[in-house]
Amino acid sequence: MNASKSFAWTFKRCMQENTLNNESKTPTPLETSGDGRLSVAYFAPGWPPGAFSNGIVTYVASIAKGIRELGHEPHVLTYQLERSNASNRGHQNVLELSSRRRSGEIMGRLRDAVGLRIRPERFFRAAFARGVRRGVEALMTSGDLDLLEIEESFGMAGFLRDRLSVPIVLRLHGPWFLNGAAMGAPQEEDFLHRVQDEGQTIANAFAVTAPSQDVLEQTRQYYQLPLEHAVVIPCPIAPTPSEQRWQPQHCDPNVIGFIGRFDRHKGGDLIIDAFAEVLQDFPNTRLIFAGPDRGFRDDNGRKWQLEEYVRDRLPGALETGQIEWLGQQPPAVLTDLRRRAQITVVASRYDNFPYTALEALSLGCPIVAARAGGIPEIVTDEVSGLLFQSGDAADLAIQLRRLLQDPGWAAQLGHQAAESCAERFSPTVVAQQSIDFYRETLARWSSSSGSLEELRGAQRQRS
């Protein structure tokens, strides 16, 4: 069911409000420090990257690296800080958030108790916004902060819009009308509420970035929004030195690698079905599947677990090692798998700008990926990899056979992938695009809202 029409009246009103708020004015010079350095805060669901298998966390780590290398100051705000992780020791500019009421806020605690019973979803969003606001205020008191970038999920950023004195850049990491549908989530009341909340937040955003042109255009079309102050800025990834890349002489020519969840969204079923067809022509091939088992719900509504699905499609494959399931693994193990495999597969039914594809390209792996979402903006068909029709296991099998039949061509595609990835997606390249957009955003903000210094001074007084 397409719910966009039922939301049209809401977003028409939001568009009118957004147009008034974002009406273009002649930009005025920014009142930043003399050296032009920007201070940018990024919200991450968890930290550090080594402790959380999450694309947004990976993005924040990569963009922060690029921002820092360009001489600017990134900050990370998170509610989940893994203090025991060795990679986090000594890491600067990471602030753990807390949404708990302070001891003297008795009336606030009473309101929370009532709100949790009456409208729990609103309570959690308000609590989320309270913690982020405190984090921003803490950064403001210790030094200048120019801007906050945060995801669109659940419309949480909408609760911050009128509570901060710095502009918010909304990052379209994965709107629920796209990701929820790809996951097969029932389009019931909770689904529709989340879609509507995210849409209202997107409509009222002061500035928007999207990793792919696909997600930006689909968002515009679904919510019927112009999003005039929105740009495409890809996700960054550090280039892999040539001596550390995938090498044909060091891989196993009989191994196909898949990294992702076993669920409908990531297409874990598709690679198993395609592998069964590939075995007819390449009986010595093995599939190594690395990722958690979230269960796959088929078109008839039946939910399959991974081992059950494999035994139905390929009896005995798990026992003989023809299919090896590793479960969820740390990044180092996944990197080794990519170097070991002759082909890496990304089979998502939809993905915005997946790091599973970026990481394979950076390593120079031969890749077969779905023609879905923003993936064709990462992988150029027959130049840096091969694309198959999303959701089509038979077409995936055809593309796998092409590379297995011609390992020399596969190696050539992998080399071109690594070179292209380094040129287009390195952290400094993407960070410069981000900084340019941040400056444009700050110019509009300064023009429409008064000088940044006045705003910062007012917030310090409130703190």
Give me a quick take on this structure.
This protein has 463 residues and is α/β, with parallel strands linked by helices. It has 16 helices and 15 strands. Mean pLDDT is 86; it is low at 1-34 and 86-90.
Walk me through what this model shows.
By secondary structure, the protein is α/β, with parallel strands linked by helices. It folds into 2 domains: 5-236 and 426-462, Glycogen Phosphorylase B (Rossmann fold, 3-Layer(aba) Sandwich); 242-425, Rossmann fold (3-Layer(aba) Sandwich). The protein has 16 helices and 15 strands. It has helices at 8-21, 55-69, 106-118, 120-142, 176-183, 189-203, 213-223, 268-278, 306-313, 317-320, 331-340, 355-363, 393-405, 407-425, 427-449, 452-462, and strands at residues 39-44, 73-78, 94-96, 147-151, 168-171, 207-210, 230-232, 252-259, 286-290, 296-297, 303-304, 323-327, 341-346, 367-371, 386-389. The strands form 3 sheets. The protein has a 7-stranded parallel β-sheet with strand order 3-2-1-4-5-6-7, sandwiched between helices. It has a 6-stranded parallel β-sheet with strand order 12-9-8-13-14-15, sandwiched between helices. Strands 10-11 form a two-stranded antiparallel ribbon. Strand 6, helix 7 (213-223) and strand 7 (230-232) form a beta-alpha-beta unit. The relative contact order is 0.13. Residues 54-237 form the Glycosyltransferase subfamily 4-like N-terminal domain. This is Glycosyltransferase family 1 protein.
